[in-house]
Design brief:
47% of the residues lie in helices and 19% in strands. With 236 residues, the chain is of the alpha+beta class. A hairpin with a 2-residue loop joins strand 2 and strand 3. The chain starts with a helix and ends in a 14-residue tail after the last helix. The model is unreliable at 1-19, 171-178 and 227-236 (pLDDT under 50).
Length: 236
C-alpha cells in the first residue's frame, strides 16, 4: 500500500478523533418551584460545627534510591484524631424550606434564557448525527479492512478508502453540521441540570455558604421575575 495513502488515512482518522462529539444532551430535569411572589425573599442559614474524628494517615519508609510506591518501600497506615470543621447551609423561600436545586434555579436570573439557548443548541447538534454515524461506521469498516490485510491486497485498499471517507464524514459533521455544538450543549446541560441537587435539603462547605449568601442577597434585591407557580427546566 502506498505510504502516502496510508498517511492520509491515518491523518483523517486522527482528525476525526480530535473532533470528538456525541449525541445531543436531554433537556434539564424539571425543578418544581414554590409559588413565587414579589414580596417573598430567600433566607439562608449556616451552621458550622467542629468535631474530633479519626483520620487515616500513611507514611512510607524507603531505602536510598527509591521513592514512595516502590516495591522496596514499606507503607504504614495509622489513625490520627483531628478536628474536622463542617459548614451546613439551608435555605427558605418565604416561610417554605427549599432544596439546594430549587435555590440554584431561583437565584439564576438567566436560567430561562440558558434553557432556551440549550434547546437551540440541541436542535443544531441533532443535525450532526447522520454524518457522525456514517463516519463511525466507515472507520470501523476501514479498521476491519486492515485487520483482514493478510487475506488479500483488496482489504487494506478498501480499508484505506473507508478510513478516509469515514474520517472526512465524521469531521464534516463536527465542523459543518453542528457537531461542535454537541460538546458545548452538553457542557451547558451540566450547568443547568439540578436533578441531583433537587433532593439536597442542605449544602455543605464554607465556600458554598458564602456563595449562597451572595446569591440570596442578589435575588432579594431583584425581586421575583417569574410568574407565580412557574416551573423551570422542563424535560422531554
Amino acid at each position: 500500500m502506498n505510504r502516502h495513502v496510508m498517511n492520509t488515512a491515518l491523518f483523517a482518522t486522527l482528525a476525526a478523533g480530535a473532533a470528538c462529539y456525541g449525541s445531543a444532551p436531554p433537556r434539564p430535569a424539571a425543578i418544581p418551584l414554590p409559588e413565587l411572589s414579589d414580596e417573598a425573599t430567600i433566607s439562608v442559614h449556616s451552621e458550622t460545627n467542629t468535631t474530633i474524628e479519626n483520620r487515616l494517615k500513611e507514611s512510607w519508609t524507603c531505602p536510598a534510591g527509591h521513592a514512595e510506591g516502590s516495591p522496596q518501600c514499606t507503607r504504614t497506615t495509622y489513625e490520627v484524631a483531628e478536628p474536622v470543621t463542617r459548614t451546613e447551609t439551608t435555605a427558605t423561600y418565604g416561610a417554605e424550606p427549599i432544596s439546594y436545586g430549587q435555590f440554584r434555579v431561583l437565584t439564576d436570573p438567566d436560567y430561562d434564557a440558558k434553557v432556551a439557548r440549550l434547546d437551540a443548541m440541541r436542535e443544531k447538534c441533532k443535525g450532526a448525527n447522520l454524518p457522525r454515524y456514517v463516519g463511525m461506521g466507515l472507520m470501523l469498516g476501514g479498521a476491519a479492512g486492515w485487520i483482514l490485510a493478510p487475506y488479500g491486497k483488496i482489504f487494506p485498499q478498501v480499508g484505506t478508502v473507508a478510513l478516509v471517507g469515514g474520517g472526512t464524514s465524521y469531521a464534516f459533521g463536527y465542523y459543518g453540521y453542528g457537531g461542535k455544538t454537541c460538546n458545548e450543549a452538553r457542557a451547558l446541560y451540566h450547568q443547568l441540570d439540578f436533578s441531583e441537587e433537587a433532593g439536597w435539603k442542605s449544602a455543605w462547605g464554607a465556600d458554598t455558604a458564602a456563595e449562597m449568601k451572595r446569591l440570596s442577597e442578589e435575588f432579594n434585591n431583584r425581586g421575583a421575575r417569574r410568574a407565580p407557580g412557574e416551573s423551570l427546566g422542563f424535560s422531554d
